[in-house]
Amino acid sequence: MLRQDSLSFRGNKPSQAMTLGEARPGFSGTILAVDAAGVEGSLPADELERRLLEMGLMEGATVEVRHQGLIKRDPIAVRINGQASFALRRREAAAIFVISNI
């Protein structure tokens, strides 16, 4: 679990940071942290964080949002470090804090 100063990242979010779930197609950025505390979903927060980290969604990785679904913009297709591509639900992507590379 990635935390800033052992506190939830949600309370200490840098002003230009956003969640990957808020990003639109064409977004390119760097992952600042993974923090699933408070993210609603079918998995407990620690399990969601573990799965995201196993997929390569970890601090310092570059991420691009390639596509989005037609219904409610869900899921999103992301590319990590220019290599791996996969689909991710926006509610799960809300656990990933990013900052734009532009």
From TrEMBL:
The keyword Iron applies. Residues 1-18 have a biased composition (Polar residues). InterPro entries: Fe-transptr_FeoA-like, FeoA, FeoA_core_dom, Transcriptional_repressor_C. Residues 1-20 are annotated as: Disordered. It comes from the Bacteria. GO terms for molecular function: transition metal ion binding. This is Ferrous iron transport protein A FeoA. Residues 18-100 form the Ferrous iron transporter FeoA-like domain. PANTHER family: FE(2+) TRANSPORT PROTEIN A (PTHR42954:SF2). Keywords: Iron. Coiled coil: none annotated.
